[in-house]
Amino acid sequence: MIPGRRLTGSPLRRCPTARPTPPRSPLTHRGLEPWRPAAASRAPRAGLVQPSAPESPARAGLFFYNDGCFATTSLPMSRPAAPTPSESSLTVMLWVVATGFFMQTLDATIVNTALPSMAASLGESPLRMQSVVIAYSLTMAVMIPVSGWLADTFGTRRVFFSAILIFSASSLLCASAHTLPQLVASRVAQGVGGAMLLPVGRLAVLRTFPAERYLPALSFVAIPGLIGPLIGPTLGGWLVEIASWHWIFLINVPVGVVGCIATFYSMPDSRDPAAGRFDLKGYLLLTVGMIAVSLSLDGLADLGMDHAAVLVLMILGLAAFVAYGLYAVRAPHPIFSLELFRIHTFSVGLLGNLFARIGSGAMPYLIPLLLQVSLGYSAFEAGLMMLPVAVVGMFSKRLITHLIQRHGYRKVLLVNTVMVGLLMASFALMRDNVPVWVQVLQLAVFGGFNSMQFTAMNTLTLKDLGTGGASSGNSLFSLVQMLSMSLGVTVAGALLATFTGVMRSVTPTHTLPAFHATFFCVGIITAGSAWIFAQLAPDVRGSAKKTDPSERA
């Protein structure tokens, strides 16, 4: 029976549960076809030239980041795969996606405590190993914009399977490296695979699970991603102590083999037939800009690099960013629309994230080096010293919610950013004669304020994005997050190399003063980013758990 209609021989009264017949429209019904609600329009996916076909509606989504911060916002809902997988297949798929996220976040931090051991094995200075960290995070930043298009075009199962395969194979290559260039090249390949694990896995969950199960499923996926950064430095130091640095990469291989098999049998190979053409020109301009700027800053750390080459790379990178801005104004569907920057909280949050995270990205690289190179800690001891940073950071996230609701984003971020910068600069006071409990307390306090900074910046950036800009805005924010982590290590390496060269002629124990000067400069950079958050309106308030504008106080 057609809802809301009278058929011959049927009673004249309307069925109590029938819906009223909507006006005739190409988007509602044709002839006697059953009525379906008109599909809501959605904004085009970042970087894709979309056809004019109607799309499916948006629903609430949960975004999570490598620093363990959560935020809810609108998420365009892609078409689910036609066949419904069994419950066991859904469970296996969740574990596969969660494991992939764990591998990605683990390898972002596990190498930090192993850098001195790697340097000794490869015949390099431990203060020149920043390229191992930069290669991974910068590659992930470059690959983030293209991962969604690859999944839409080639299917989630194929792309996720390829991501695990690339990640595992490159991990084996990392363990087999005999020179620093070989290790850096392998880390680039590892970043290619790692960049696709989270976004493609999240997309597979979105397309497979019904709306009422989506948030619990994605929360389950997020938990291992929180554990990875927490145990990464300690696990890396422990593996170096009992075996060698090679095992921080070799542990990925058996996990990857099992993940490939499970992906092949459990993950639906869904794709979006309406996926448009990828904005290759815009993507290449952004890629050239990110790589050129990073290489120019890394060239400052390499004292043998010609200063003219550093200047040329910097000019090339900045010119590429300017060219993208000019291109995005004219392009109908750029990879990242400049219209996003009309949202004031998004602009301030994104710029503040970029500069504040430079310091936050430098600290996980600098602290283990300081503890091992200058203070005589073993790799495992240095890893244990990093635990208070992560543990206290996990618990402090609850506090920031109440602070923002009471005082607003502007006051909280102004005070907290300055505090984080001062705490970073306070590591210039760390010496071998400072008691261990004081060092642990210093690390714990820094971890708490740094974690609150992440949560406040993340939610500020995304909270006013509507349905139309949620997908593109979140993708751009993820790119900036990874880029700033890479720039943080790059800046720290450049400062450390510069101060090491200067201090060598002043004192024989030149590494500790060089570390102190580097921490002081990183702290000043971070505290200076408070000026960006000062541009917020004084009454900007809201929950640190919600990003929907309707949830603001």
Automatic annotation (TrEMBL):
Keyword Iron: no
Compartments where found: Cell membrane
Protein name as it appears in the record: Drug resistance transporter, EmrB/QacA subfamily protein
Domain annotation Major facilitator superfamily (MFS) profile: ranges: 93-541
Membrane topology: Multi-pass membrane protein
InterPro entries (UniProt xref): EmrB-like, MFS, MFS_dom, MFS_trans_sf
Family matches, as SUPFAM superfamilies: MFS general substrate transporter (SSF103473)
PROSITE patterns on file: MFS
Pfam family, one: MFS_1
Species lineage: Bacteria, Pseudomonadati, Pseudomonadota, Betaproteobacteria, Burkholderiales
GO MF entry, a single one: transmembrane transporter activity
Keywords, comma-separated and alphabetical: Cell membrane, Membrane, Transmembrane, Transmembrane helix, Transport
Protein origin, superkingdom: Bacteria
Transmembrane segments: 92-111, 131-151, 158-178, 184-205, 217-239, 245-266, 278-297, 309-329, 341-367, 379-400, 412-430, 436-456, 476-502, 514-536
Region (Disordered): 1-52
Gene Ontology CC: plasma membrane
Ranges of compositional bias, category Low complexity: 34-46
